[in-house]
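Chain A, query sequence.
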Amino acid sequence: MYNDSLAYAFLNEVVDFPPEIVVSSAVSTFFIHEAIDYINEEPEVDIEGFNYEQFLGLAKIMLLVDSAEMDQIDQEIQLAEGKLWNHSKLGSITQHNKYRKWSRRPKWLGFRGKRYWKKFHKAGFGCHLSMSLPVFNRERNIGVIYIGVMCDDLLGHGDFHRYELIDGQWTLTRTHNIWIS
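Chain A, predicted structure.
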């Protein structure tokens, strides 16, 4: 299990866990690695002449980290890889247990596909939600998290959410969409 009290406090304040949402157990680190990779790359120009410098600038602003903090963030990511969220600490244990019980049913539960989603919704679930490891700046007053939501084959999105700690409350200050289906 992943065990970082700051991460759980942050997530419980900024993410809503309604009963119809199934929260993925895996601590996602994929998009955090991608953001760090983009920050460290030199700007490139692709075949169509699109300059990635603007995207790199946006990633730097979103994460608000400098090169000195990259090693610390990478270490935090390595510690979280392969870990599972503790659903009791997230407040999502009820739906997690309900989903685990339901997902052990017969073989029709191949991952995704129309048949899966139809039975998923019929069982009272709405969407799958996956969350990345939150990344904080050195002062721990800015946090960035990736949240992906999938509700059907072509009904989902993934976004970076940037929060600032203002007067003791985490306040959403920016959202950047990464993908949509």
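The chain has one domain: 5-180. Strands lie at 21-23, 127-131, 135-136, 142-152, 155-166, 169-180.
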